[in-house]
Amino acid sequence: MQRRVRIAASVGLHARPAALLAKAAAAQATPVTIAKVVDDVAGDPVDASSMLGLMSLGAQHGEEVELSGDEAALDELVALLEQDLDKAPA
Questions:
Q1: Domain presence at residue 90
Q2: Global pTM?
Q3: Where is the signal peptide (predicted)?
Q4: Is residue 87 part of a domain?
Q5: CATH number, domain at 14?
Q6: What gap in Å lies between CA 39 and CA 32, rounded to an integer?
Q7: Which of 36, 41, 80, 86 could serve as a FRET partner for 11 with CA atoms 20 to 30 Å apart?
Q8: Which pLDDT belongs to residue 18?
Q9: Which regions in the chain score pLDDT beneath 70?
Q10: Which residues span the domain enclosing 46?
């Protein structure tokens, strides 16, 4: 299964947001990959549990990414990406 989502984090998938997403992806029962979407085409996917892989995408605020994996895992990770993960939790 695949899902597309826009990056809500104000700094994109940089340090803190990438670490939080990688941790959540690593906790999933099945592997999840993520790819940056450019001109409606998904690029090469990386392991969503890899912080360095996530940062290598260069995904910025408002850009679209495509997640691939199990439906339940995607639901959780999409919900994370729809938040500004760069802000400290309230």
A1: no
A2: 0.91
A3: 1-24
A4: no
A5: 3.30.1340.10
A6: 22
A7: 41
A8: 94
A9: 88-90
A10: 2-82
**88: in domain:** no
| Active site positions, annotated | 14
- pLDDT at site 89: 57
| DSSP bridge partners of 2 | 68
Please state, in angstroms and rounded to a whole number, the distance separating the CA atoms of residues 85 and 8.
8
Is residue 16 included in any domain, yes or no?
A: yes
Give the position of tokens 């997640």. Answer: 67
Cα torsion at 14, 16, 18, 22 (round to 10°)?
170
Tokens standing for residue 22: 């990688």
Strands 64-68 and 46-47: unpaired
Report the pLDDT value the prediction gives residue 88, as an integer from 0 to 100: 56
DSSP string computed for the chain: -EEEEE--STT-SSHHHHHHHHHHHHTSSS--EEEEEETTEE---EETT-HHHHHHT-PPTT-EEEEES-HHHHHHHHHHHTS-TTSPP-
